[in-house]
Amino acid sequence: MKITKTMTDLAISKELFNRLEAHRQARGMSQESLVESLGISRPTYARLEKGTCSFGAFIAVLRQLNLLEGLDTLVPAPTIRPSDIIASNSKRKVRYSRGETEPNIHHYLTSRTSKSKNAAKDSVKTLLANRKKFKAG
Prior knowledge:
Elements: H1 9-26, H2 31-38, H3 42-50, H4 55-64, H5 70-74, H6 82-90, H7 105-110, H8 114-136
């Protein structure tokens, strides 16, 4: 049975338990030998089916059945997406000095790399030229 988000916690626990039992049986291992090797009691192992066992017991069973690597698929490590990097770079703000209505051009130019400084100077020159045109008009 496929596990879906519409299933109850108990139904998911039973399904996981059934899958663990199938793996245990496929390895020719009895429940007794499994619980002995884990150092847990049979009632603790039975609590897996009800979903009331500890997380540590669940991990121990996965380890004993060589299924621990499947947790990487279940809960993958977080990664940084390229769109997150682009979004954080585009949120940089141009600082305004107190009482100014125009951005502080000096700060704007000194906060960029030398390669982009020339492009910034050209765009600033263009902005200032356009500003003078609009003021004169």
